[in-house]
Amino acid sequence: MISSLLLGLIWQMQIAQARFGGGGHVGGGHFGSSHYYAHGGYDGAFTVILLGSIILFGIFPVALKAYIAYEQRRHVHLTGEQLATLCEIFMRLERTWPSNSLMAVRGVLTPACYEQNQLILDRYQELGFYNRLEHIKIQDVTPLRQTKQTLTIAFKASLQDSFVSLTSGKRVDEVGAAMIPQRVMTTHFTEEWTFETTAAGFKLQKIVPRTEYKAPF
Prior knowledge:
This protein is of the alpha+beta class.
C-alpha cells in the first residue's frame, strides 16, 4: 500500500515537471520575467504535489476503509434462521439484565463475557438497585464481519433505561442515591456484538458501543 502511495506521489511530481517546466530558463528577456517564470513553475508544481498528497493520504485511506468494510460485509453469510437466533439472544440479554443475574443466559455467553458483565450486575446489587430496561426495540441488524470462529453484527436499537432502588422501587442514580422524579428518556444506540460460532451455536464474546443518544420519545 505504501509503495502504491509513493508511486502516486512520484507520478504527481512528473506531471508537475511536464506542465511547469521545472523552473524555466535564464537566457533571454529581462531578469524579472525569467525570475517570475521560474517562481511560478515551482509554485504550480508544489500545488499539484500538495493536492496529490491530500488525495492520496486524506481521501484514499477513507475510501479504502469503506471498501474493506464493504468487502467484509459482502462475505458474511447468514440464513434467516441464524439472524433470528442472534436477535433472540440480543432480546434475552436485554430482558435478563434488570434481574442483576445473567445465569439464565449464561449458555449464550462466553465465560469471559459472562464474568465481565456479571461483575457489573453484582456491583448494582451491592449498591441496592437494578438497571431497568423497558420498551426494547430492534430497529436494524447489519452483518459486519465473519471469520471461521467469529461473527460481528451491528444492532441498532432503542429502549428506556433507568436505575431503580431494590427496596423503595423509586428511581436512583448510578450510585444508588435518590433522584428527583423526571421523565424517562428513550436511548437510541448502535452496538457491535461479536459472537463466537461453535458447533452448539452462537456465544456472545463482546459488545462494542458505536453511537448513543437520548430523546424524549
